[in-house]
Amino acid sequence: MEEVYEKLFSLWQKQRSSEELLKIPEELLNELAEYFALIRRQVRLSDKNSLQTKVRLAEFDMMQRLLESLLKHRMRKIIALSSTLSSLENLLPFEKNTFNTMQRVVSQHESMVRNGLNDPRILYREMEHRYEIVVFLKDFPKFVGEDLYGYGPFKSGDVAAICSANVPALQKREIVKPVKSV
After folding, report:
1. Per residue in 138-162, pLDDT tens?
2. Are 18 and 55 in the same domain?
3. pTM of the model as a whole
4. CATH assignment of the domain containing 57
5. In angstroms, rounded to a whole number, what is the distance separating the alpha carbons of residues 54 and 170?
6. 89 and 9 share a domain?
7. Nearest 5 degrees, angle CA 88-CA 93-CA 98?
8. Which residues constitute the domain of residue 94?
9. What b/e sequence results for 54-86 when a residue is b if at least 16 CB atoms lie within 10 Å of its CB, and e otherwise?
């Protein structure tokens, strides 16, 4: 499986020297996932104090750090391609909203990177947002949902489809009630 390391290292080097975002082949992520699973199995079935196990764990850690470095480098490029803010204290109100949205996006991206370190195939999956029909029990101002779309403002009695990730918090505060399908 040295070739998996070589492929990852080569891609990491090319990405660092390129100004563009390079394509990460899906087959490389599949190979990494299989390799990570193999190492986990070998470590689980071996003597934890053996030299071979320690080498395998170090190899696993190094490969994860290399993948993480690659993905973080790509994120820096993605951020650099977007508009940059020179000073946070001079932001207009709508710019503060944009900055907050960017923070949420970066946080979601970093979460996906962490999940991808365990199973790199996750990195090729589309993020899926489900929507739920709810009735608003009270007036509620405009808000940005987990899917980063704006919703509202709403009046008591309004029916809307919102990102299902937002429903539990709104329901807990007795702001919405999900509509049951018949």
Report:
1. 999 998 887 777 888 999 999 888 9
2. yes
3. 0.56
4. 1.20.58
5. 48
6. yes
7. 70
8. 2-124
9. eebeeebeebbebbeebbeebeebeeeeeeeee
